[in-house]
Amino acid sequence: MLISVESHEAQKGRQRLRALVDFYLGVHSAPEIAGQEVNTAAEFARALRETGLDVTEHVGGHGVVGVLANGPGPIVLIRAELDALPLAERTGLSYASGIPGVMHACGHDLHLAAALGSAQELAWSPETWGGTLVVVGQPAEERLTGAEAMLADGLFTRFPTPAVALAQHVAPLPVGVIAHGSALTLASAQVRVDLEGESAHAALAPWSTNMVATIGQVSSLWQEVAARYGALATMTAVTAGSAANVEAQTAELLGSARARSLTVVDDVIDSTRASLASLSSARATLTVTGAAEAVAVDPELAADLLSEHARIFGPTRVWSRYATNAADDFSALGRELRSGKRVRLGYWMFGAVDHDVWRAAGERTGAADAPAIPGNHSDLFAPQLNSIATAVVALTSAARSQLAARTLRPMEGSTS
Ligand SMILES: [Zn+2]
């Protein structure tokens, strides 16, 4: 009879992963939208403090910064986001959101668990590395305002200024896959259009503002202008009117535009504003509420991280030319410092789709990226829990590769 004895190390690893999954489940079931991440921030801060980091809260809103200083060496920042989306979860999972109309549909809860896991791995093995780890819990990513708010509140001046900043994002890819690329995100701006016309009896429609028709016009205009610039834009939310026989006097539209760079996005916005000025049915005001440049990964760093991930996960699990239309204000951290040096950004995506689901979707649609799978921002988005392990390893190995390497001194009396 074969007796399998799990090593002490393996047992400890399993317990740590179980605790991280519990942390994830807690965050997932109690999501908070951008700007309201009070409890999520407090939980993340508490967990980092328990791990031994020096933690500061309320940085740029609900931002959390944890510092783990471990002697001389490079300063490496890892970042995860705190906010969820105003979306009602329909996954039916036992741990689904308990907050009506709010859902972690973008995987920020996974990112937080992975950042915590990496902080723990490094905090619990101080003899293997040197330098300083800065762990950031960033608020309001979904509004593309949180990173700028943290920088304005001294992220790079009140805390150790990093040479390298790292972040990762879950994507509709099979569990275990890590995807690198130079165009992982696009630049994006979020806008609000306020319309103001005349309220009137619906019977006067031919002579008054037809607000709903105007909303349609504005929405089409936004898309058409973007298409002229090779950009992608949609209006995604609208508030107007309250009765079947009263013309609404005001309306509010929310939407976004995305393109390769913010210069193109700005062109789309300027051109749309010019067209809106000649609308005859209502006065229109377009306001930019948040914006982020595309994440510009440092090419040398990206090559280093790609080879590190390929070494750890094996080359078939690491994709090198992935691209998406998503945006992430992590880009703001790649700024030039007063010293003239630039913070080098590293960024990659990891999969969380069950392999059978992935295969079935691929066969159904015949598409390589299986768009039939409910992805980020879908109310059916349900990442696999075992993606947390991959995300922890991906982030820890990336951070470790940029910190100072220290080899263990052989023990006294050791013979090999
Ligand atoms: Zn998102």
UniProtKB/TrEMBL annotation:
Keywords for this protein: Hydrolase
Q: Which InterPro entries match?
A: Amidohydrolase, Bact_exopeptidase_dim_dom, Peptidase_M20
Upper taxonomic classification of the species?
Answer: Bacteria, Bacillati, Actinomycetota, Actinomycetes, Micrococcales
Q: Which GO terms describe its molecular function?
A: hydrolase activity
Highest taxon, organism lineage: Bacteria
What Pfam families does this protein map onto?
Peptidase_M20 (PF01546)
- The protein's name in its UniProt record: Amidohydrolase
Species of provenance: Nostocoides jenkinsii Ben 74
Establish whether keyword Hydrolase is in the entry.
Answer: yes
The signal peptide annotation in the UniProt record is none
Q: Does the keyword Cell membrane apply?
A: no
